[in-house]
Amino acid sequence: MESSSAAPAGGSRREATRQKLYEAAVTLIAEQGFSATTVDEIAERAGVAKGTVYYNFASKSVLFEELLRHGVGLLTASLREAAESTARAGGSKVDALDAMIRAGLVFIDRYPAFTQLYVAELWRTNRAWQSTLLVVRQEAVAVVEDVLRQGVAGGELSEEIDVPLTAAALVGMVLVAALDWQAFQPGRSLDDVHAALSRLLQGRVSGRP
């Protein structure tokens, strides 16, 4: 990932090394693509020997697969924490969805190169890591599905909601809107973008006037 802040607190030396490799790989692949990026370049960018890459990962493909798993895992954890924090504070399910939208924007703002790679890889069908990517994507979407189901069960949200599709749409909305924000509207603040998506959520999901 692009920021060392994602490194495990008090983690082992190997975890720290893997973190450096993730950061190097995501930056290089975002700059020049997966095929054009070599293990030598990843090692050089990470400041380690080439053998260190193969000690931690069997191949460049395995490194990238683990990078996707690691990054989406961080996103999933941030979404889950947003929902749980809202619940602890006594907020509604729509409040939880709104908090998750903000958490997603914060994640994407922190890791823009990873997000670009993740979105691009979702639409490829010939990658060795496609099955892994689909699994970790579903883990992230499932967090949103849980909140939607709880909202429906509690009478806060309409029973007509298609939970799987709505969850996927909300996650997709945040991903695409955030990338559009960074690429074409970089002058807007995170608060401004969140407010815009929050209004969309209130109108399209909760049905409030």
From TrEMBL:
Pfam families: TetR_C_24, TetR_N
Signal sequence, renumbered to the chain: none
Domain called HTH tetR-type: residue spans: 15-75
Organism encoding this protein: Streptomyces ziwulingensis
Protein name as it appears in the record: TetR/AcrR family transcriptional regulator
Domain of life: Bacteria
Keywords, sorted A to Z: DNA-binding, Transcription, Transcription regulation
SUPFAM superfamilies linked: Homeodomain-like, Tetracyclin repressor-like, C-terminal domain
Entries under InterPro entries matching the protein: Homeodomain-like_sf, HTH-type_TetR-like_transc_reg, HTH_TetR, KstR2_TetR_C, Tet_transcr_reg_TetR-rel_C_sf
DNA-binding region boundaries: 38-57
